Amino acid sequence: MDRVEGEAGEFNVTLIKKPRYIEEEKCTGCGACVEYCPIKVEDEYNQNLSLNKAIHIYFSQAVPLVTYIDAKKCSFLKNEKCAICEGICKNNAIDLCQKPEKIEVEVGAIVLSPGYEIFDPKLQGDYGYGTMQNVVTSLDYERILCSTGPYEGEIRRPSDGKHPHKIAWIQCVGSRQVNPLGGNSYCSAVCCAYTQKQVILTKDHDAQAECTIFHNDVRSFGKDFERFYQRAEKLPGIRFIRSYVSIGKEIPETKNVTLRYSTYEDGVKEEEFDLVVLSVGLNPPDDVKDLAKKFSIDLTPQGFCKTNPVNPIETSRRGIFVSGAFQGPIDIPESIVTASGADALCSQLLAYRRGELSTEREYPQERDVAGEKPRVGVFVCHCGANIGRVVNVPSVAEYASGLKNVVYAEEALFACATDTAKKIAETIREKGLNRVVVAACTPRTHEPLFRDTLREGGINPYYFEMANIREHCSWVHAREKEMATRKAKDIVRMAVARAARLEPLKEFELPVDKRALVVGGGVAGMTSALSLANQGFEVYLVERDLELGGVARKIHFTLEGLDVQAYVNGLVNKVYRHPLLHVSTDATITTVSGYVGNFTTTMKAGWMAKEIRHGIAIIATGAEEYKPTEYLYGKEDGVLTQLELGERIARGEERVIHSQCLVMIQCVGCRNEERNYCSRVCCGHSVKNALKLKEINPRMDIYILFRDMRTYGLAEDSYREAANRDVKFIRYEPESKPQVEAVEEGGHRFLRVTVADPVLGQKLEIDADLLALAAAVVPSATNAELSRFFKVPLNPDGFFQEAHVKLRPVDFAAEGVFLCGMAHYPKHIAETISQAYGAAGRAATILSKDSVTASGAVCEVKESDCVSCGVCLSVCACGAIEFRGTPQGKKAWVNSVLCEGDGLCTAKCPTGAIQLKHFTDEELVAQIDTAIGDV
Amino acid sequence: MEKEQVEQLYKGLADSICKGSAGSHAGDVMVVGGGVSGVQASLDLAASGFKVYLVDRAPAIGGKMAQLDKTFPTNDCSI
Questions:
Q1: What pLDDT sits at residue A77?
Q2: pLDDT score for B7
Q3: ipTM of the shown complex
Q4: Which of A495, A423, A414, A411 is nearest to A453 (CA)?
């Protein structure tokens, strides 16, 4: 990145493209050059735990899958000796004379997603990292666990390559610290959960392993993380020990490491471990100051990107947005959400030029070959040396040419190379091929490419079949060349047999209704709705209550100091004023039908019935505060929930402000059997209310009784501030919960809270005039009904279940339906706003298109064979099958738009009436028959 | 990661960057950093009808997530 000029809508960015010393379009990633390169270098990708070559591919699944030369290590680039790689490369892809290239790009908006660095424990010095070989960081350990890592997926330790048996993890390395040596004061938010993952994976590798985790608070605040924590904790041989730790010594003979720690029961102990993993935290990117200067954006004191308090995706400069961990320490789902959110915000800015620069591809007219006899062409790929070194490719090609229905067979060095693909398309036309088999790698990555080649060749893309002779053959039979060649021939013969029976299929183009429905008019729903409207889409916003605002109406200030009511009122005004936004309050949805691009929803708004047609829906129904039944709530005036406390503070209620002693109890109604999840926001809320009260009345005694303080991320600083202001934090165990009784003494009624203090080892009695309960966040009561209407699932706790916890956090498996806010899981307002933009961004990827394409490989019912048993309906995961009346009675019918082609129904159908196109019995049986034909 | 989409996206980007020898290019959005967040932003922007330039200083995109073995709580492969 050289410099950035201009402003939102017309930035001019100058980049310096570093020389790779490879012509990217020529390199096929075969790896021959890597094999012959004589210079060994430490492998950065493997955290320098293993060696690679001066020329190498960054990692085996890298995109782009082409090599690069490490200029600092290459003999030629250092002193013009060597250049072996140049001679080895058959494609002449190596260019040792490449120079840095200046590229200027004009863009309308910029998204900064530079990520994070891990905290470097060498700075700290006291954990032995860098001096003791068997002390590694969690990222080092991540590579050690991985099958593409330094030990090929076996857990070995660096000093002697032995399998470690006793492993210790030290939490909060570089996080939650105030020290001058470079540690961070904030909580890195991800380490507790990744450590639990590493423990579970370690036990998967070696069931006998003994794992010990030295931790402070365990912060499992994410969705499903509480259960994940329990899963790790319950494994045999696992100890979670709440203690600070210091490194004892390295034992010279074994290189084992001792750790000193202390527990309330046993005092200080020293224990030996085979391997110590430091759970390191997240730092801002290394070059963050330079980056901030070039883009003229502001940073926070911690070095993260400074963002708009009511929009965590906006930087201080218009037109420049931020996504991912540059916002602060966040986990993968939030990184994805903010990325989609950045899309929404760019779209708001650039809606006027959407689609102007993208180009539509054109294909030749498709030739109708239905009446022709099968004419199969086979292309056998060497994959550089990947296949060719094991399998005798020429003999496989020759064998293929003799197979039934094959009219043409050829070998290719790289079937996927652009020029080869062009040649295949030409061959299809010249030889009149109507089926194509490519014997190469996996359809997972390359089928779309070759289907495209068929379209270029003028035939239906479903006439393509792939024979995987790499993953299924050369890679797994590298030492059995002759047998591997025989197997490759078998695989090709099977593919040809199936190809001959393939049928042309049509993909559907379904028009998209460009209107959106947003269910729920809280902060999440309003933010999504406004974002879509600002992108130029018409939006219907439906709210159950009489007014907009949701649960935010009960929140008056945030930990960061936002005036929530002013913000919500501003939002409501914007919503009502927007010409593309239609609001219905006091409204309930009564039916939903249709599918992505074409939904019809009916509802009752007041006394009016309405019907809305829309292309997508966003579910933003929020959540509610649990009404406690414990701790005398509802029985004694002085017992409140945190939301009630917040409202009374905002109202300036005398009794609250002039209270002498306030006790807060955390985890009320959650982290228990009934609600086995953490409500995420309560620790932050309690600290927020405590700080506010201390500000108003510094002499008030405040106690917070907690299990784990989960003030994750930057909120950790507020936790520390509260402790500094003499808010007393007392930890309790779930088996000895605080006891509350109402006491009347000397005409004064108060609440007596009894709690066992583990530090003092005795019971404490606190006489309080107020008790605030951090009540759980519970899912909205309407979730079950909406889940049925939109055919989207709920998780065991009653929150909506997204398509993938990590990678598709605002999508549902059902296309065209999205979610955000507390309908997904409890979250703070800023997180809700991010997610709302995320949902709007994802929704816009559909709304911005005129049509959506549905695959041709879907299920189909032969009505005459259907016995109406309904098994298919019960197994279908996409709700695509229904009964329809026919003259012969009710028969199963597949809505091909909803069908995802998973084939679950075809396996269950007792009569074979339901078939998955492209994977018909005939096609598969032919393949099997030819496989076992010569047995 | 949706590798196939990423590869297609990359091919598009590589084409546009490599072909323009004059050294000047016009796009809608530049995404700086090709980790999981940058890749997702690029995919979404491209799907929304915008031309995207994705810039990373490493030889391959993927960022830190590509170094992770598996991710919690599903323990899916990171790549």
A1: 93
A2: 52
A3: 0.87
A4: A423
Q: What is the pLDDT of residue A180?
A: 67
- Please check whether residue A110 is in contact with residue A10, taking contact to mean a CB–CB distance below 8 angstroms: no
Q: In which element (H, E) is residue A418 found?
A: helix A418-431
Q: B67 and B60 in contact (C-beta within 8 Å)?
A: no
A842 CB neighbour count, 10 Å cutoff: 30
pLDDT score of B3: 47
Start-end of H helices in A163-287? 191-205, 225-234
CA distances, A410 to each of A381, A386, A424, A463, A589 (Å): 9, 18, 10, 18, 60
Alpha carbon separation from A493 to A462, A468, A473, A489, A676 (Å, rounded): 18, 12, 14, 6, 54
Name, in order, each residue with C-beta under 8 angstroms of A323's C-beta and a sequence gap of 6 or more: A111, A112, A113, A313, A335, A338, A339, A341, A342, B37, B38, B40, B41
Name chain A contacts of B70, Cβ cutoff 8 Å.
145, 197, 201
Please answer whether residues A879 and A911 qualify as being in contact, where contact means their C-beta atoms are separated by less than 8 angstroms. Answer: no
* Helix (H/G/I), strand (E/B), else coil: A125: coil
Touching check for B38 and chain A: CB below 8 Å?
A: yes
Confidence band, pLDDT 50/70/90 cuts, at residue B79: low
List CB contacts of A322: < 8 A, sequence separation 6 or more: A111, A112, A113, A305, A307, A312, A313, A314, A315, A338, A342
pLDDT at site B78: 66
Q: Which amino acid is at A724?
A: N
- Check residue A850 and give its pLDDT: 93
The verdict on B41 touching A (C-beta cutoff 8 Å) is yes
The two structure tokens encoding residue A410? 């050829």
Confidence of residue B18 (pLDDT cuts 50, 70, 90): very low
Single-letter code of the amino acid located at A701: D
CB contacts, 8 Å: B64 with chain A: 115-116, 118, 139
> Cα dist. A197→A67, A167, A864 in Å?
32, 14, 51
- Show the tokens assigned to A164: 């470690």
Gap between the Cα atoms of A514 and A536, Å rounded: 10
Q: Are strands A515-519 and A616-619 parallel, antiparallel or unpaired?
A: parallel
Report phi then psi at A721, rounded to 5: -60, -40
Q: What's CA A837's distance to the chain center, in Å?
A: 16
A714: Cα separation from own chain's centroid: 21
Residues of A in contact with B47 (CB under 8 A): 845, 848
Query: What are the backbone angles phi and psi of residue A462, rounded to the nearest 5°?
Result: -80, 0
- pLDDT > 60? residue B11: no
**CA-based nearest distance B75→chain A, Å:** 7
pLDDT band at B16, cuts 50/70/90? Answer: very low
d(CA A780, CA A626): 10
> How many angstroms separate the CA atoms of A140 and A151, rounded?
12
A99-153 residue pLDDT tens: 999 999 999 999 999 999 999 998 877 799 999 999 999 999 999 998 788 998 8
- Best of B37, B68, B69 to mutate (most A CBs within 10 Å, chain A): B37
Contact indicator for A228, A106 with CB cutoff of 8 Å: no
Could you give the maximum distance between any two Cα atoms of chain A, in Å? Answer: 105
Both tokens assigned to B2: 């949706």
| Ranges in chain A, pLDDT < 70 | 180-181, 934-935
Q: Do B40 and A110 lie within an 8 Å CB cutoff?
A: no
- Alpha helix (H) residue ranges in A188-274: 191-205, 225-234
- Nearest partner of A67 among A24, A97, A16, judged by Cα: A24
B16 lies within 8 A of chain A by CB: no
Angle at B74 between CA B68 and CA B75, to 5 degrees: 40
